[in-house]
Amino acid sequence: MTPDLMEERLRSALHDATTAQDGAYLDLDPSLVLGHGRRAVRRRRIAAGASVAAATVVVGLVGYSALGTGVDRTSTPAGSTATRGAVTAVLDTFSDLSDSTTGDTLPIPGPRRVAVTVDPTARPDLVFWDVADDGSRRMLGGSSLDGVDPLGATWGTTGEGSHVVVGLVPEQARAISLVTPITDEGGGMSTSVEEVVPGTGRKAFGTRFSDAAEAAAVSHVLWWGADGSVHDESGALVPSVSLGDADDTTVYVAPSFDRMGTFAREGGGSAMTLDASRNSSGRPVISMARGETGALTGLFVAVVPDGTTPGAMAPVAGTTVTEPPTVVDLPGSDRSVLWATFTATRSAPGSGYSSVTWTEPGGRVVTERP
Question: How far is Cα 333 from Cα 239, in angstroms, rounded to an integer?
Fold first, then answer.
C-alpha cells in the first residue's frame, strides 16, 4: 500500500470513528495521529490486511500499534457473548515503584491509571485511555481486535518513551508474562494491573516499567490459563507441564522465543533464556527462591532429554530438600523437565544447594552446580 493511499484510509477511518462516537473523540487531531502512526508502523508489526492496517495504525496523541495474529476475523473469544455496544474496563491505579537503594518513589512519567474500551460497532473498536484522578479520561490510542485470535493477545506502548504497556488477553488468563530481553545486569522494576472487560471474553492489562526501554522491548506475550495451559500471543499452545507441587507450578519452554519459565500460584513466576553455555550441566536451568519472612522456598528446574533418570540434590547447611529430583515429560516437545524443591534459611549460603545430578540416555551422568 502506498503512503498516500494509507493516509487516505487512515483519515477515512478517523472520520468514521469520530462520527460514530460523537463527542468522545473530539480531542483527536488527524494530522497528529497520522504522523505518530507512521512511527508506530516502523516500531511494531502490524496485522495483515488493508482494513486492519487502517484501524490498527490509527492512534490518539501517541503512537500505538496492536499486535496479535489469527485467521478467524468474526469469532468471539471462547466462553463469551458478543457485546452490542461499548464496554469499558477501568484498571486499578499502578503501584508506585521505588529506588532499590534509597527507597524513594521513582518519578515515572505517563499514565498512572488506564482504561480499555471494546466497542464492536465502532472504528476503532479498541480504545485505550489515560484516567485522571477525578475519573475523567483522555484517549491514548485506538486499535482493532480484527484478526486477533480468541485465545490471542494484543498490546502496545503509549508512544515514544512510554513506560506503560496496555493490552488484552483472554479472560481465562490466570497470569501474564511479557517477554523482554534478559541481560546479566537484570531488568528494571515493573508493576501490573488487570481487569476483565465484561461480556467480551477478554481481560485488560497494564504494566508500568521503571525503564521505558523495557516497555518498548516487549516482543511477545505469554499467558497461563485456568486449565494450566500456556499460550502465546497468537493463541498457540506453548509446551508446558504442571509439576503438581505445593505452589501449583507450571513450567513452559518456548524455543521460538528463546525462553523457558514458570507460572505459579501467588505470583511466583520466573523466566530465563534457553542459553545453557555457562551452565555446568550444559542444560537450560532456572533456580530461584522466594519468601517474605522466615524460610525461603526454592525451586530448581532443568530442561533435559527424554529418557533422563533423576539423581539427587545436595543441600548446603540451612537447606532441606522437600521434593527430590523428579523427571516429567514436556508434552508437545522431545524434552523433559527435571525439578526439585527445597526450603532454606535466609542465612543459607549461595543457591541453597551445592549440586544437582541426573543421568541422561546413554549413561552420561550430568551435574549442575550453581
Answer: 6
